[in-house]
Amino acid sequence: MDKLSNYFRTTIEEMRYNVTWPSTTELQKSAGLVLVGSLVFAIVVGVMDVSFESVLKAFYNSFR
To answer: Looking at the Swiss-Prot or TrEMBL record, what is one Pfam family this protein matches (predicted)?
Structure first.
């Protein structure tokens, strides 16, 4: 039990005194970048999905 309490004590000290936390402005910029990147990724995947769907439909309909 002593090891566990020592672990939590050192973890709290590390988080409080040694970690450099980003400012609010940096967090907002990072969140905006993640949002834009996620939207671009979603659009690319959506376009790929629609194009593959139409190609496969055309392929399957050619055998009817």
So the answer is: SecE
